[in-house]
Amino acid sequence: MAIFLSKESKVIVQGMTGAEGMKHTRRMLASGTDIVGGVNPRKAGQEVDVDGRSIPVFGSVQEAREATEADVSVLFVPPAFSKAAVQEAADAGIGLAVVITEGIPVHDAVAFRAYAQERGTRVIGPNCPGLISPGLSNAGIIPSDIAPEPGRIGLVSKSGTLTYQLMYELRDIGFSSCVGIGGDPVIGTTHIDALAAFEADPETDLIVMIGEIGGDAEERAAAFIKENVTKPVIGYVAGFTAPEGKTMGHAGAIVSGSSGTARAKKEALEAAGVRVGTTPTETARLVLDRLT
């Protein structure tokens, strides 16, 4: 079982023929993803050889979907064109759009999130590493070899780097799915969305939730956990030593006064019954203590 992404997912890559698109298309294929095409209007009709596999390039997402029945798109599209690219995917009926691109203007993210929601397209990101269901499929830039075997843990994280670290530290137990939702102020899929999906997944026994300073997403997630999640949740909030009033890493990671601090988020999560580590390693130890 997996959330959002399965072995049956048929994936296209918008921007596949660019340097980043090709590099990660190769990595996704190597980890078992069923990539059925790429999209680049200037190279429509071409075939691209990726490690011995011929991948067709289409002029539009609509053409790709009609030819391949693709239901997932991974976007490696420059910020200026990302809004149009997500809207194109939604218009074509793509069910899941994974937006890797960072630096997308907030007003563009607001617009394409609303546009996609109206058309039934789930957006992961922007500014995210994507998602992986180990042993089944990988849509994005998460290295598949750090946790190659499926397991019992569901992971949702704002941070790509911390996603990788927790996957590595808990690789012996394994994951049902890992979802990097991104750290921008406006994102498509939230902690709450992933928590609800993991709660409904019969093969997820425990959920790891990684947050960071800035905003109130973790506090809202804590309220949701208290009312709706019966499975154990282990949390980590990055940024305990961050100075107030400064953006740290992600565009959404800014603290104003006492609002959005790691300590305030930790207190909210603990009040909802979530055990919270103060370091990634301590967080992994809390998971191991609960599952072993």
Keyword list:
292 residues; Rossmann fold; 2 domains; 7-stranded mixed sheet
Describe the fold and architecture.
Helix 5 crosses helix 9 and helix 6 (191-200) packs parallel to helix 7. By secondary structure, the protein is α/β, with parallel strands linked by helices. Helices cover 34% and strands 24% of the residues. It has two domains: 10-124, 3-Layer(aba) Sandwich (Rossmann fold); 130-291, 3-Layer(aba) Sandwich (Rossmann fold), CATH 3.40.50. The strands form two sheets. A seven-stranded mixed beta sheet has the order 3-4-2-1-5-6-7, with helices on both faces. The chain has a seven-stranded mixed beta sheet with strand order 9-8-11-10-12-13-14, sandwiched between helices. The protein starts with 9 loop residues before the first strand and ends with a helix. Strand 13 (233-238), helix 8 and strand 14 (275-277) form a beta-alpha-beta unit. The protein contains nine helices and 14 strands.
